[in-house]
Amino acid sequence: MRTLIVDDSRLARTELRHLLGAFPDVTVVGEARHAAEARELLTTVRPDLLLLDIHMPSETGFELLASLEAAPQVVFTTAYDEYALQAFEVNALDYLLKPIQEVRLAAALQKVQARLAPAEHRPAVVAKPAPEAPALSTLTEQDQVFVKDGEQCWFVRLAEVRLFEINGSYTQIYFDQHRPLIPRTLQHLEQRLDTRTFFRANRQQIINLNWVESIEPWFSNTLKIRLRGGPEVEVSRQQSGRFRELLSL
């Protein structure tokens, strides 16, 4: 389990590294003193796990996560207990209070191993390069993204997102009962998403093919698709032809 430690305290980083030495399956691949340093390391060391402090200079741990397009598994390590609810609202796997006890660390690592086990044969979910970088890797349905909308935050696996839809200068994403807005264009998302799973239905919408519930003919040789959990999506004439070829209809 490749682990990145992010904490502004040198003593805290040293103590965590010492504690992790008791777990042979854990490899510390780097340390960061603040969010900017962590952001750089995430693109190069490709960790499975982020041991993340909350209070740091310039940016908090939550702000670091909000700046990432995708993130590894996260366990918060902090001296403050008042952020526990917020941590679990973003689907962090655990929340360890300093001084960290080895038994609590062991329990947290077991949770991480359980989460990673089904995906042990695929690359870890990591932060991707900035959009203008020349080599952008594809985001698959197994990747998870951090979404922040106002005061609410989520870690969302792309497999759970059934629809991306233009909403003004933002994109609205549909998962569970939520519809937060993200500061990404649909064109940017189309370039990043795996075309085996995500299909551009029209100028306004990208659908997750695994969420298609029914397909019916519509006007002018187009198609109308109903997604599980809604809504209905009208496929443009050009894309209807591509959709039929894709599914051999």
Main sheet characteristics:
5 strands, parallel
Uncertain residue ranges: 119-135
Kindly state the percentage of residues in helix: 25-40%
- The secondary-structure class comes to alpha/beta
What Rg do the Cα atoms give?
Answer: 20 Å
Total E-strand runs: 15
Query: Which shape, going by the Cα principal axes?
Result: elongated
Q: How many structurally independent domains?
A: 2
Count of alpha and pi helical runs: 7
**CATH fold topology of the largest domain:** Rossmann fold
For the record, the CATH class of the largest domain is Alpha Beta
Strand order of the largest sheet: 2-1-3-4-5
CATH architecture of the largest domain: 3-Layer(aba) Sandwich
Spatial gap, N to C terminus: 44 Å
Q: Strand share of the residues?
A: 25-35%
Q: Can you say what the CATH homologous superfamily of the largest domain is?
A: Response regulator
Order of helices and strands: EHEHEHEHEHEEEEEHEEEEEH
Mean residue pLDDT: 85
List the topology elements.
Layout: E1 2-6, H1 10-20, E2 27-32, H2 35-45, E3 49-52, H3 61-66, E4 73-78, H4 84-89, E5 94-97, H5 102-116, E6 144-149, E7 152-157, E8 163-167, E9 170-174, E10 181-182, H6 186-192, E11 198-200, E12 205-208, E13 212-217, E14 223-227, E15 232-235, H7 237-247
Parallel strand pairs: 1-2, 1-3, 3-4, 4-5
Antiparallel strand pairs: 6-7, 8-9, 8-12, 9-10, 11-12, 13-14, 14-15
